Structure formats: structure tokens, C-alpha cells
Amino acid sequence: MTETSSAPRSAADPATSPNAADPAASPNAAASPNAADPAAALLDGLRRTVRAGDAPGPAARRALLELADPSAARTAGRVLARMDAPDAGLRDVRVTIHATCTIGPLEQLLRTQLVGAGFRPDIVKGEYGSFEITLATGATGATGATGATGAAGGPADPDLLVLLVDAGFLLPRDWSPAEPLALEEHVEHRLRELRGLVEGVADRTAATLVLHTVPLPAEVRDTFVSLDGRARFAALWHRVNAELLKLAADRPQIAALDLAGALADSPFAARDARLHRYGDLPYTDGALLVLANEIRRVAQARAGLSRKVLALDLDNTLWGGVLGEVGAGGVQLGGLYPGNAYLDLQRTARRLRDQGVVLVLASKNDAGPVDEALAGHPEMALRADAFSVRAVNWGAKSENLVRAAESLGLAVGSFVFMDDSDFERAQVADALPDVAVVSAAGDPAGLPGALLRHGWFDVPALTDTDRKRPELYRKRAERQDFSSGFRTSEEFLHALAVRVDVAPATEFTVGRIAQLAARTNQFNLTGERFDEAATARMAASGGHVVASIAVADRFGDEGVVGAFWVERGPETWRVLNLVMSCRVLGRGVEQAALGWLADRAREAGAARIEGRYVRSDRNAVSADLWTRAGFVPAPGADAEAGPFVLDLAAAPDLTPAWISTRSTREGSAA
Question: 552 vs 306, 559, 589, 590, CA distance in Å?
Fold first, then answer.
């Protein structure tokens, strides 16, 4: 509960600043001579951190994402280029940028965004003027600071290959609005050439290709003095951008960003005529910051750093006013401003839930009035059943989020927390630095935008399991309640009636399997993350086995919750990786999956299965899988990492007694 007024704050109110609203977002601010300026304090803190050989902590990284001043973001990128902290818990990402123009400060702006999202970026720029020849010859890899090389000894494919395109690439050097057909033919020809270059690169690299729509320069548009000619050319340009966006629909390896659309909602102009003429810089720093933010969202989604849970406050967040003071009928929700703004936030949260985001209620209130408001208010878009967990009490919100995470079987690092109270946000940020904190303070009209602008929930593609996730986690909480009535865990598991369905990967499950590889960090045995293209190739290969693992029980169908990738040899099958959603751990599902794999290996005439464990800072929960399943270290093997071997001739059935398994290929229960 908060004591703030429901009246909107002015734009000049310091509490509307994301950095001011979250004291933790300005590290070392108290010791900085620039403490009154959050951006300057942040930059001072970054310089001290880098000089000390460290990397920015979670609070500073959150502040980097809030930098709205392109100059400050560019400076931060230059400072971070000197960062040398190999053990900082950041995820490596290699980025190569090729451009049809001068790249300008995109490298620095993108570094700021990527570090803010938890990456350690290695960014390489292509040579000026080499865009077409580089893409045409396939020389898209580039060795950066890490010196990464490919299997053939040349530069390794980057994780992201960013293609920066300006309007000059599509337009002729000289043209006449009096000859519109010639102009249109030239633009369409250049679009076909660009599409061919992009598709050719996609055939030759494993990198994710990132390109964007191109804003139409005002001087081009306004050169047409006839209204119909201007409209006709604008329609052509919209078709060009639509074709660029369609590339992503045709090829999952390509991520197409709507830069033109994003700039329409930003305070920045797309172009600066002087910079363009002076240095072939067609985009302003502000436009490049918008693009860097969009590229960061792609990297975040592709690396599996998407958040799964949205924890929401109630008072002055999901509705206006303080429930304990005005009662269920007195809160502001729906109707005119500001009630319509709070309703819009609820609808936004509901739309996120429809796409798989798990909602948690985190409110300091008495439970009875909250239940009354959720059930009885006629404008309520989020009823009680929309929330997988409800933490409505007077305890510390950080403790409630920890308990909610335990109930859902997820790490707190998968949470986004939104609250209007400066105190509550600061308390959660301090106690749980891995939680993404979003301010609901200030004008409620900006609430949906504040929640969405960082793309915390972005994923490469939605699967059926994503859409079912909120209900799956609500059922998980019900299972926990159900388990309290049994004397032993095994008795509970037998009553749960667990069914495991293991099936070779198909065109319908490859996307979900690749998503699990990207997003699963805890039960992830080796950390090898096979993307959708690699997973599809392995699934079609006779030398590999790729399978999905689905689970159901008396409470419902969990969907595909795990997968494994296996290299299949004549004598030995080697498990390259096995991943499993943490929400099904403790039921023996992973052992049942290995039981299925052992049966398939025996049928194929193999003598053994071999597996490894590669420790990370988050996968300790999977460390003992091989020994629990009866595998033994190979002679001379490392005691922790293995390899571990299962002798198929002597191995018993690995499937626990309380689990029934089914192979879709066989279509029969085991």
C-alpha cells in the first residue's frame, strides 16, 4: 500500500525519472560530485568500476538501460569498451556490423545497451564502403577482441550480424519526380538486390541476421509537389519496408526491426542533414540509440534472457488510489482519466499473460478487500484467476517474491517487478538485484509504455507451451497444496500419476526445443545452446537423436518441458546436452527420459551412453544427474565433469516406478 496522491505528477517531478525513482540505479551516487545528475553520477561510477577491473553490477546495468540521452549513452559505451572483467557473470556475445553508410556511434550505443542487458559484447565493424562486396562474398565473420575463430581456422560467425541500411542504398544518385516509373523500378531493383544479399548470407552463416526498416527522408517525400505523386511514392516505400519485415517471417534466422515505426514514437529525428552531407551519417545519434535498443532486445530474446514472470503491485499501479482508504468501490479504474490509464495497464498485463507471461500479485494489503475488489469491480480486467501466485500481505515484497519464485519453481532472475513506491522498488532492487524493476510512479498514462519499452518478455517466436505457461504454473501451485496430504514423497508421486512422452523432434517441436536450449539455465547439463537451425539439422541427421520431453499428470498437461541432443555412434551414444524446465524437477522426469534414450540405444545396437556435466554459476541442480541415473565416471575422467558412462548391457530400467512413459514413435505405453 502507498500513501501517494492519485493526481498525475508533472514532467518536471524528479520522481518520474527512472534513475531518481530507484536509488540503486545510480551506483556510488552519494560519493560522486555529480550526484545531482544521475547520468553524470552513473558515468563516474562506470569509470571507477572499469579502472578497478570490474564490471557494472545489476543496479548500474539497469541504469544503463534507462539512459535516454544519446550523448551520455555514447560516452558510457566508450568507457565500457575498456572493461576487462572476465569473471563478472556476463554472457559473451559477438556482434559484427556492416553498413551501407558511416556507422557513427552505433558501436558505442549498442555496447551500452548490451552491457545493460547482462552481456559482455565483442563488437566488430565492417569496412566503410564494403557492404555489398562483403555480403556477396560471404566474408561476414570478423575476429574481434576475443579472437574467436571458426572450425576452419578463419573468423568465427558472430552471434549477431547487424546490417545498417540507409535510404541512399535504395535510391538512385540522381532522380526526377517527373519520371516516377523509372524511380520506382530502381528502388524495387535495389530491394531485390538487398534481399538476395541477405538471403545469400543467411545460407552461409549461423549468425542471427538483424536488419531494419528504412525511414523515408522528408526531402525525398517533399520533392514531390503533387499530392498524388507523393502518396504514390510513400506507398512504394511502405511496400519496401513491408518486404524487409517479411524476410523475418520467411526465415527465422533473420530478425527484422521496425526502425521507422519505433522512431515515430521517439523524441528523436531520424536524420541530420549536416551530418549526412559532412560524414555520410544518415542517422542521428538519437535514432541510432533507438536502433541499439531494438538490437539489444533481439540479443536478449535470442540468448534466452527473456523474463517469464511479471509481479505487480495494486495501489496506484493496477488501480488508482489506496484500497484500504477508499474501499473496493472507490479505486480509480476505467472510465475517464486517470482510471482509464490503470485499466490500460491491466489490459496490457492480460495481453502479456495471453502470450505466456506468468502474473504474480505482490501487494501490501489485507487479503479480504483485495479479493472483493478483484471479484466485484465491474471494470477489473485482471480477476483473481489471472494470477498464478498472489502474495497479498504486509511482509517485505522481496521476501514475497522469493516465496513466489519457490512456488513457481523459477529463479527470481526471471521476474519483472512493477510498483509505484520508490521505497518498495529500492528494497526489492537491493535485496534481489537480479529482478528487473519497473517504475509505476508518475503520470499513469505512461504505465503501459514503462512496462513494455525494455522488451523484458521478448522471445524469438511464441510456442503453444508459451501460451499455456500461466495456467501451467497455476497448476504447479495447486500441486504443492495437494502434496501436503501424503506421508512420503513417493506416495505423493504415485498419486500424481505422472506421464512422460518422449518423441523425436518434428517441424512442430523444433522451435520449442531450441527455445528450451536458449532459456534453460538451471537444469542445463553442458550449457551448449543449439539454435533452431542447428537443432533442425541435427534432427534430420542420421548421426544424431534430438527429442522433446513432455509431461502430464492428474492436474493437466505441462507440454514440452525438456529436450536432449545426442550424437549417435555405432558403439557409443554421447549426450551433447539435456535441458529441463525447473517446474517439473523432483518428479523423476529426467531419469525417465534417460530410460527412453537407453532403450533406443539398445535397439540400435549401441553398448553405452556417455554424458558430461559442465558447471556454470546456475546449473548446480543438475550436477548429480549422471550418478543418480547409474552412470559411472569413465577411467581417468574428472570426478565432476566426467565423462560418465552407462553400460547398457548391465543397466536396469532407469524409469522411476511412479512414471509411465510413452514414445510417440511407438505409440504405446511402456
Answer: 25, 7, 10, 14
Question: What is the distance of C-alpha 131 from the center of its chain?
Answer: 29
Burial readout 91-118 (b: 16 or more C-beta within 10 A, e: otherwise): bebbbbbbbbbbbbbbbbbbbbbbbbbb
Check the CA dihedral 367-368-370-376 and report its sign.
positive
Does residue 616 lie in a domain region? yes
Cβ neighbours of 484 (radius 10 Å): 7
pLDDT digits (tens, 9 = 90+) for 419-449: 999 999 999 999 999 999 999 999 999 999 9
- Terminal Cα distance for the chain, rounded: 53
On whether the CB atoms of residues 23 and 63 are closer than 8 A, the answer is: no
pLDDT tens column, 56-93: 999 899 999 999 999 999 999 999 999 998 877 899 99
Q: Any idea what the CATH number is for the domain that residue 142 is in?
A: 3.40.50.1110
Q: In sequence order, what are the beta bridge partners of 149?
A: 155
* 559/579 Cα distance (integer angstroms): 14
Q: Is residue 401 part of a domain?
A: no
Count of other CB atoms within 10 angstroms of residue 656: 18
- Where does a domain end: 302, 328, 349? 302
Domain boundary among 271, 302, 333: 302
pLDDT per position as a tens digit, 8-46 = 333 333 333 333 333 334 333 333 445 568 899 999 999
Do the domain assignments include residue 269? yes
What is the domain range of residue 517? 486-669
| Residue 108 counted as domain residue | yes
Kind of pairing between the strands at 572-580 and 523-524:
antiparallel
Q: How many domains does the chain have?
A: 2
